[in-house]
Each structure stands twice: as structure tokens, then as C-alpha cells.
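Quick sanity check, Lipoprotein:
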Amino acid sequence: MMKKWLMALTLLLVFGTLAACGNSSSSSESSAESKEKKELTIGATSGPYSDMVNKAIKPILEKKGYEVNVVEFSDYIQPNLALANGDLDANLFQHKIYMENFAKEHNLDLSEVIVVPTAPMGIYSNKFKSLDEVAAGSEIAIPNDPTNLARTLLILQDHGLIKLDSAVNPLTVSEKDVKENVKHLQFKPIEAGQLPRTVESVDLAAVPGNFALAAKMDLTDALALENMPDDYRNRIVVNTKDLNQPFVKDLKEAVESKEFEKVIDQEFRGFGKPKWMLERNK
């Protein structure tokens, strides 16, 4: 009887010890998971948006205790792939339409955090000083990709140079939707990255802001800058699974800060501000 009692007591002690070890391990794992991430890697395309991260976002995050590493990309493919595979915690380079299409095509789950000030499309000319001077039959270089083409046509319509079919989605409008061409403009489709070079050879050129800045053009030299819809403005993007992480909240707060806007006003002249920022400043 004594032996059975001792055996039972031994088994209880063994199982109790194992359970305690299990709880300790579980507690340790839980603690590790709940520990806030303080090292961030943010990707951005070379030029104005990597500058924006370095000058306007990184310093604010560092004040919050983060160590921030900025990775620059020269293309629009790798930043999202690097984000999805965990090499990046966030990226800044793309607008809403591109993000959604890329995510669908590559089966990724991406979400925006906040829209940021963005370099607008502009109409540039070395021949005319204003759009009022544009002569009939002038040649205008336009982007040959659908997204930037739509943006160009909207600028031309906003300034009375063309009239578009009102029934067409403004985000997908194309040359075939031009119903009136007041100045009989001659459209010359060009790859977007080559448009800055055409300013010297054509009467007018529609140049996306990022390519204009890469070519050392001054946005404020444009005859007209687009009234950009927020869908075309760049945004900070993260993996959807991270949306509720503390670092995402801190990223958003950094962009919403007055310190961020002050840097934008000083260092990024001509950048169009998103709707949320304009409404805050009313």
C-alpha cells in the first residue's frame, strides 16, 4: 500500500513539473510576441520618396525609440515582393490602383496605412509660358501607360483644352474618350520615364512628378499641375496581417504630425497634399 502511494506521489510531482515547464515556455513565447517591434525596415523608390522617409518620417520614428533602416529600390516590382516576404516592414512608392492590381496579380495581402503628399503630374513646355498661349495643332508628349494617360487627360480637361466623355470612369479614361479637342492637340505617346527628355523636342509634355524630380525638373515650373485624386497619391503600405501592430500606429502618427508637414513644406515644394491633410488645415 505504501509503495502504491509513493508511486502515485512521484507521478503527480513529475506531471506537475512538466506542466510548470510548459506554462513557463508558453509564458515566454507570449512575452516575446507581445514585445513591441523597435527595428523597422522601410522600402521606397530612389528619389523623392526615399528622401521623404529619410527626412520626414525616420527622424520622428527615431524619437519614438525606433531604429529605422531605409532600403531604396529602382523599380516598382521588388518593393512589394520584399514587403510580402518579410524583408520590409512597410514601403512607400505606390498609389492605390497600383497596389490593388499588384496584390491581385501576385496573390498578396497588402493594405495602406496613410496617404502622403505626392509629386503631381505636370504639363511642361519650353515653348509656351502658359496654357493660354498653346497654339492649335501643338504636339504634346503623353504617357503611354493607362494610369498616367488618364491623369494627363484629366489635366487637359480641367484647363479646357479637351473635353472627355462624361460617362467614362475618370480613373480609366483614354484617348478614345476625347470628345472635343479644342486646340487640335497632336498626341505623342511616350514611355513615362522618357517624358522629361521630350520637353526639349515637343511643344508640350505631360510628365509624372516622380520622373520630373528624377530629371531635376522644378515642379513649380509646370504650366499646370494636376488636381490629383487621392487614389493617385502614394501611400505607406504594410502587410495586412500587421495593420494592428504598434509600429503601424506609430508610422501613421508620424505622418499625421505637424513636424512631418513642416518638412514637406520646406523640402518638397509642389507636392500635392492628400485630402486628410488639407481638411485638417482648413
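Posting the structure with no commentary besides this: The longest strand covers residues 39-45.
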